[in-house]
Amino acid sequence: xxxxxxxxxxILVVDDEESILLSVDTILQMAGMNNVITxxxxxxxxxxxxxxxxxxxxxxxxxxxxNGEAIIEKLSAHYPRIPIVVITGRIDxxxxxxxxxxxxxxxxxxxxxxERLLATIRKTLRSGELRDSKSDSxxxxxxxIIRPECFSHIITQSPKLIEIFEYLESIASTSEPVLVRGExxxxxxxxxxxxxxxxxxKGEFVxxxxxxxxxxxxxxxxxxxxxxxxxxxxxxxxGLIERAxxxxxxxDEIGDLSPASQVKLLRLLQExxxxxxxxxxxxxxxxxxxxxxxxxxxxxxxxxxxRKDLHYRLRxxxxxxxxxxxxxxxxxxxxxxxxxxxxxSLLKNRPNRPPELLTLLETYTFPGxxxxxxxxxxxxxxxxxxxxxxxxxxxxxxARMKQLEADEQTIHFAxxxxxxxxxxxxxxxxxxxxxxPSIKQATKMLIEEAMERADNNQSIAASxxxxxxxxxxxxxxxxSQEK
Length: 483
Known about the structure:
The chain is of the alpha/beta class. It has 19 helices and 14 strands.
């Protein structure tokens, strides 16, 4: 039983104003809630939550670096069981409704009233305890996946994805829309297919990428047309929404949808009705809608590019896919899977992978995620000629991507300042240091960090530092002599 006066799990308070943090902390401490963590830097919230698993998060909306809405989105996706209470200085109904729709459990208006704060926290803790007890009573096996066969097409051992699987099992039987967010190549369509498999719906899973479709093409693709609806419409054609009847319609890259198409999609979601081109009578739809995007729809909404009402309808249920760099425990499984797949596809004997290959890949950020890893492996297997997979393809690909990233940073720096710089990186990592390290100390720290990331492999560490292995070996020798 949770102690509502002083819960075992901490209460996390996030606000960039130190005076607010002190005020809230004092109120909670005086009420006997001694387990409190305060945070003034919104960039640290996710790491704090991951380490401490708070019982409730009190969150300011307007903060530098990462705003409150973005944090709510991420916490709701990754930690749906942790309740969020928003602290806001904006006293309007629209803000309150937006907070609740985006995943917050409640809100408090600044200046913080002591009685309102304590009542809200106790109510939120009590709701969380009730939800957890219901969850425990409905599953004798705890948080295990009930239907693992529905996720067999997703290669993973990541706790983050396992938690997403558990969430999908809980919402799969509903007919409400699901919004899947994530970077390119993270497997958003695989997640949509898993939801369809879990749902038990009788119809097909139908996928379409709506990026770049103008309103006429979008309408024709989804809703179809009758004969004579436009020049060239010689026969009647059913749309994908009809093909997905009693099934699932997956709309990929929904963030690129035109304003006119957004209106039609909103009607489909709200009324379950649509109208084929050239027809006056409405038809009913029984398809479930799942959408995905790699862009920040909150940002599009703020810029009036994406309709707020459509956004809220799409995100009744939401999933945020972690990038590959945040689930590197999956690299061994994915690497072996793609080597097997490439070997079969290319009709080649399966090559062995060199033991240092995994270490090399663990140092890479994978901007293209799982899809990029698959392309790298297929390219390497296609070029390999002996029993062991060559690392050259991987090194060359990573070097090209590193150079592209450096070029983009330089161009961005030049756009902002009107000048160019050989290194356009941010000095933010030094801002927290009261005294700057010397060049010698910084070089030593950089080499040690590269060696740690490379698991003491000098060749990999040298590539991370952008120097030759011989140069790194010489620097390591000098460092060892100085000790």
